[in-house]
Amino acid sequence: MRLIIPCCCLAVLCATAGADTIVLRNGDRIVADAVKEHDGRVEYWLGDNTFTIPRSIVARIEAGGSPPAQPAANAAAPEPPQVHTQMAGSDELLARIIRNGAVDDAALKAIEQEGIPEQSAAANTIAAGLAESKNDLASAAKYLQNALRFLPHHAVVLDNYASVQLRLGRPGEALSSAQQAAAASPESAEAFEILGFAYYKDDRNREAIAALKKSLQLRPDDNVRNLLQRVEREASTEADFREQGSSHFVLRYEGSQAADTLRSQILESLEDDYRDLQNDLGGAPPSVFVSLYTDQAFFDVTQAPAWSAALNDGKIRIPISGIHSVTPQLASVLRHELTHSFVRQITHSRVPQWLNEGLAQLEQGMTTAPFGSRLATLYLSGRQIPLNQLEGRFESYSTAEAAVAYAEALAAVEYIRNTYGMDDLARILERLGEGQPIEAALRSTIHAGYAELEAEMTTYLKKNYGT
User: Fold this and answer.
1) How far apart are CA 383 and CA 395, in angstroms?
2) Which of 22, 113, 125, 241 could form a disulfide with 30 if both were Cys (CB 3.0 to 4.6 A apart)?
3) Is the dihedral of CA 135, 139, 141, 143 positive or negative?
4) Cα 292 to Cα 148, 358, 418, 447, 458, distances in angstroms
5) Is 18 helix (H, G, I), strand (E, B) or coil?
């Protein structure tokens, strides 16, 4: 998830009778144990955790408890376009290649040895299609790469290859194929949609806008239009931004809003987190884009909820008005958001929300301790939200449900880490990236599906927090 106040929704579990309430300008409320104003920010506490938000979005602070804050909404990263056009292949060819629901690689090799380029390319695209249907994107990329050996300029194969590479988190490789596809098929709206997305993921907004506009000229499409509007907002806001890089990050900022010291500290903090997360989780994104905004620009670009303090929609976006150095709170937010980048890269965005959010909270140093006794009561009474209902985004939940959802997400990941180790958490992510469903990934790693995991969590919570 891309919360910037990753725990604000836990107010339901943590609030006490003597709590203070932060009333936001949009009417939402955050119930906190204590609140303090400092240097244009509002700092507040929930249990052992501390968070800050810009003072500019706060209407007033009320003493005493009141209804808790609404949970922050997920900021969904735009999904790579799915290619609907496929290379033609006969039923006879399909029957030769697909046996018992799997690709017969020996039969595929025999077809290639027959020396007919069109047939060899079509056979490999059939194999790629089956691999995609099983979420095995690495194999799909391999088959499509083979197809391009036989027909290197075939627009449909290039489109499919670019789409798969984007879903694998490889925008640079995808861009080259997308450029070739658009050149080979200049009247294809789909080709220019994929090209525009590839430019956007490669942080080339001007070229992305041109390609997306071309796609819309060829065929109106609401998804393309929404992406174009998103890129145009970002391009307009960042038109005069400068860049500063490090080994793994490209930092973009408005010159007057980010002091040299703050920028250097942010990059240093991110590089430290990058090394830690690579050690914890394994695979890592080759590069990460980070944008620093004024508070108003942040909300204009991201359309994020008014209580948000940062966001990860494929790029890490942070409002920094009034911040002059990397505070513990900002360091926590940076690590939380970077964790999402790692998870997205390793799993190719195929990760249940409870695991994604739980890991981000765990990596930023949160624990279940502030609300563990309440969670224990929920689990012991069987009133928890089942984990299989926490696979999708949490936006549709009520305030109380969302509070439980985030708390359960953290508890599940904390339990797996404490019981089986961080290596098993990394293996679960790896197996998701290989295309395994979440229950299969759990069973092949910790030998427990959802039912067993929730039973074990109940015992864990009772032992640590039960009365």
Assistant:
1) 20
2) 22
3) negative
4) 40, 25, 35, 43, 41
5) coil
